[in-house]
Amino acid sequence: MKIAIAAIGHLKSGPEKDLAAEYEQRILGLGRKAGFTGLAVHDWAESRGRDVKLRQQDEAKHLWSVVPEGSPVLVLDERGEALSSEAFARLLAAEAARGARQLTLMIGGPDGHASETRSKSLKTISFGPMTWPHRMVRVMLLEQIYRAVTILVNHPYHRA
User: Fold this and answer.
1) DSSP H helical ranges for the chain
2) Where do the domains of the chain lie?
3) Average pLDDT by stretches of 10, the chain with 160 residues
4) Which of 104, 158, 107 is nearest to 136 (CA)?
5) How far apart are the C-alpha atoms of 102 and 7, rounded to whole Å?
6) Is the N or C terminus of the chain more exposed, i.e. has fewer CB atoms within 10 Å?
7) Under CATH, which number does the domain 2-152 receive?
8) Contact, 60 vs 95, CB < 8 A?
9) Residue 82 DSSP one-character state
10) How far apart are CA 118 and CA 27, in angstroms?
C-alpha cells in the first residue's frame, strides 16, 4: 500500500523541511518490509477565499484531488481521536491488509477541514486537543508513520 500525505501549506527551507526529508527517507527505506510500497507528499498553498467556509472548500478540492476512488482517508483534526502509536500502526496495517492501494492522510489549513472532508474520511485522528502549526504537524505525522513502520517490523526504534 502506498501512503500519501495531502497537506495545506508548503514547508519552507529550514529545520522542519530537513527533518521531514529525513523521516521520508527512513519510511522509504524500511517501509517495504511493513508492506508500504511508497510515500508521496502533496502540498498546496492556503486558500485566499474571502471566508472560512470558502477557504475550507477550496482546500478540500486540492486535498481530495490525490485520493483514488474508494481509497481510505485519515483526516488530522484537533477534534479527532488521539491514538497511541501502536494503535496507529495497527490502523495502517489493517488498511494494507484490506488491500487498499493508497491510504491518504490529510492535513488541513489554518481554518481546519470542511465538515464534508471529516465526514467522508475513514477516521479523524488527532495529535491531541492543542492546535499545532502545519509544518510541525507534517514532521510529527512523518515521524509517527516511521514509528508505525518500526512497530510493524519489530525494529528497536519504538521502545514503549
Assistant:
1) 15-31, 52-64, 85-97, 115-120, 134-152
2) 2-152
3) 97 94 96 95 96 97 97 95 97 96 97 94 94 92 98 88
4) 107
5) 16
6) C
7) 3.40.1280.10
8) no
9) E
10) 26
